[in-house]
Amino acid sequence: MLKIVLTMAEKQLQKLKYGDELMEAAEQIARGKTGRPPAAVRIHFDETGRMKNASTSLLVCKFCHKEVAGRAISLEGHLKKCPNAPEEARPPKVTKKEKLSRPEVVNGGGKGEHKQAMKKLCTVTTSMEGKFRNLMVPKLGAIQSLHLMLRDKRSTHIQFKQHADRLMRILAEEALAACAMEFATVWTPNGMEYSGMRPNNNLCAVSIQRSGDCLLEQVLRCDPAVSVGKLLIQRDETLTEKTPMLFYSKLPPRLASFDRVLLLDPMLATGGSAMMAIQVLLNSGVDEMNIVLVNVVSCPIGLSYLFQAYPSVKVLTSAIDPELNANKSVLPGLGSFGDRYYNTGN
């Protein structure tokens, strides 16, 4: 109480020294910086002299006599819900129409557009998962965060590579987990049983060069014993259809004997390269249901074509972008994955 009296005395001395108008202006600035509510809100509360913490005092509502923290958001929020507060004391309500007419929403700079974009991505993903039972999209917060950094055009080569490696490591672990076939039970050092799926040791990873080699590296970090195959398939950029062409194939001789074959390709746009690679694997004796396509970004068009042609193939992807542009690139996309990863872009 003594502290409050001293503070009020100091204010009176300052007002005498500097003038009422100057001190009132200074108080308004201070209130804005500290988050204190304006006088129009504070008049509905009485001071208690008690503190909630070092910077916030407790006030009592004049209408319901409830203690409320003396910050703008707390007081205004209380007045909105206070059962005894008259209508003129409540903060003005903002209608949905007024929210939509705000400049930051209309001009695309606010949260509204972000929510709409995220909702669109989630809707596309949910729709595709419901349509294709062999489509797997891990729901991890880390994946969304890493995608943000990958898609940022300001990310440097080092930043892109670092975040891409982290994302692909997650995908590699998920892919290996999807290949597990045997249920097993072990005993822990504490003498308790623990059950789960045992990792599969009879795997082959086939990368579609060159971007697929990025994923291959992460798979081998997780399981160095995995056998490796290579395919070089490139799109003919001179054609409107971007027709894929097979330039090179080097696969293990006993490819058909593996329990699972991981086909690694970070980008799935039209699906042409992936489908050509799948056909190469099928021609080598691999069962369609034993193929798992591991992918960073895909799109509905490519997935639809792929599952229509090869319904038993499993696809593991970290993101499904809604559409393709005129150049058959996914949107919003992340640019040329290979160029950004290997720093060979313009």
From TrEMBL:
Endpoints of the signal sequence: none
Family affiliation: Belongs to the UPRTase family.
Cofactor(s) the record lists: Mg(2+)
UniProt-recorded Gene Ontology molecular function terms: GTP binding; uracil phosphoribosyltransferase activity
Keywords (A to Z) from UniProt: Allosteric enzyme, Glycosyltransferase, GTP-binding, Nucleotide-binding, Transferase
Species: Aphanomyces stellatus
Biased composition (Basic and acidic residues): 87-102
Pathway(s) annotated for this protein in UniProt: Pyrimidine metabolism; UMP biosynthesis via salvage pathway; UMP from uracil: step 1/1
E.C. code: 2.4.2.9
Region of interest (Disordered), residue spans: 82-114
The protein's name in its UniProt record: uracil phosphoribosyltransferase
InterPro entries hit by this protein: PRTase-like, PRTase_dom
